[in-house]
């Protein structure tokens, strides 16, 4: 922050003196804590370019990551002409969740943010972690609409990114999963920003300590029943111990590189798709010759893209390869049942129809 300069008369003793500007240099304030500066810089970079007057909604759990994010957003948003508020999603999954949510909202208000709490119902589909995530994003979408917010910001850090990549690797989910979380995504018409993806979790904790903010530690984050908690508490520390430091950063770099590759592939698909796709009765069809002319990586991406865009479903690698065999290994096989649709070879085309 540098020093604060006040202007006043010289005291004649050289303790202030008029100097060149006739000013008295007051006591130097300590510089801005580096952790606070890093978090603020990340938030400023993410919010820069938003239209003045935009409402930005901070997803605040009360943990160190989201609390540091809320403090930085409360500081930076007004300077950019933005209005910042907070929302805390209460999943209702543990005793005391209501009190924890209320405490988080109180901390947001102490930072100068209008705060709200949203209670959600968590289902069971996909397992507890996936179900909680789905409910959380549904709550954030609803809160954004209620607040008139065009942007939601979350406190995901570089460590969260590394954990996501490791979990994707363990599932064998392919490059799409290994890309991790995007810095910017669409949340049903609301922009979802993750400003802290290059910031370590230790930095957010240090920022909270420097600003006198007391974070809440969610017991679920260390509960070994959950895969992400096991990765956080056991797997990553073991990798750091056995392979050396920098594993989390390396995983985050891998995610960024794969995301760049995916964006390049998406551009190639966009340039190609219009020439090889035709609408069919109750579905869509793709030219066999065009698919065969492309390398396997692009061919498989086109297949997944067609199913995702037309039927809003994701294909596994096994399913994708089965469809690709209709192009590369055609021997008269029958239709293939896929999520939300069915694929079959019809002459010189692969046809996808709603199931």
At a glance:
The protein is an alpha/beta fold and 355 residues long.
Question: What do these coordinates show?
Answer:
- The protein has 355 residues and is of the alpha/beta class.
- The chain folds into three domains: 1-31, no CATH class; 34-253, HUPs (Rossmann fold, 3-Layer(aba) Sandwich); 281-354, 2-Layer Sandwich (Uridine Diphospho-n-acetylenolpyruvylglucosamine Reductase, domain 3).
- The protein has twelve helices and 13 strands.
- It has helices at 34-47, 64-79, 97-110, 128-147, 158-171, 175-178, 201-210, 227-243, 247-276, 288-293, 296-311, 317-328; strands spanning 5-7, 23-25, 55-59, 83-90, 114-119, 151-153, 184-187, 190-193, 277-280, 283-287, 336-338, 341-346, 349-354.
- The chain has a six-stranded mixed sheet with strand order 5-4-3-6-8-7, sandwiched between helices. The chain has a five-stranded antiparallel sheet with strand order 9-10-13-12-11. It has a two-stranded antiparallel ribbon with strand order 1-2.
- Helix 2 (64-79) packs across helix 7 (201-210) and helix 11 packs across helix 12.
- The chain is elongated and about 75 Å long.
- Residues 1-28 have low confidence and may be disordered.
């Amino acid at each position: 922050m540098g020093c604060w300069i006040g202007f006043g008369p010289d005291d004649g003793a050289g303790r202030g003196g008029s100097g060149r500007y006739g000013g008295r240099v007051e006591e130097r304030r300590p510089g801005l804590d580096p952790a606070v500066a890093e978090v603020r810089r990340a938030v400023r970079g993410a919010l820069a370019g938003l239209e003045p007057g935009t409402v930005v909604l901070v997803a605040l759990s009360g943990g160190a990551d989201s609390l540091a994010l809320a403090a930085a957003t409360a500081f930076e948003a007004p300077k950019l002409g933005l209005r910042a508020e907070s929302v805390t999603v209460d999943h209702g999954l543990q005793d005391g969740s209501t009190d924890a949510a209320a405490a988080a909202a109180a901390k947001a208000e102490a930072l100068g943010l209008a705060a709200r709490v949203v209670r959600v119902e968590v289902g069971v589909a996909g397992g507890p972690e996936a179900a909680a995530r789905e409910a959380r994003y549904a709550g954030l979408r609803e809160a954004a609409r209620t607040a008139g917010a065009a942007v939601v910001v979350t406190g995901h850090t570089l460590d969260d990114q590394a954990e996501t990549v490791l979990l994707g690797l363990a599932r064998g989910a392919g490059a799409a999963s290994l890309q991790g979380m995007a810095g910017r995504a669409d949340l049903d018409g609301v922009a979802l920003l993750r400003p802290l993806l290059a910031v370590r979790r230790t930095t957010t904790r240090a920022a909270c300590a420097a600003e006198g903010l007391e974070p809440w530690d969610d017991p679920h984050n260390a509960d070994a029943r959950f895969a992400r908690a096991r990765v956080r508490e056991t797997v990553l520390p073991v990798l750091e111990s056995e392979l050396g430091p920098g594993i989390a950063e390396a995983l985050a770099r891998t995610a960024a590189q794969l995301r760049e590759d995916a964006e390049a592939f998406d551009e190639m698909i966009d340039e190609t798709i219009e020439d090889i796709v035709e609408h069919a009765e109750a579905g869509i069809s793709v030219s066999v010759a065009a698919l065969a002319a492309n390398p396997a990586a692009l061919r498989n991406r086109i297949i997944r893209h067609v199913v995702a865009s037309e039927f809003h479903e994701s294909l596994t690698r096994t399913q994708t390869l089965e469809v690709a065999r209709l192009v590369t290994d055609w021997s008269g096989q029958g239709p293939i049942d896929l999520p939300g649709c069915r694929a079959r070879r019809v002459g010189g085309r692969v046809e996808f129809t709603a199931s």
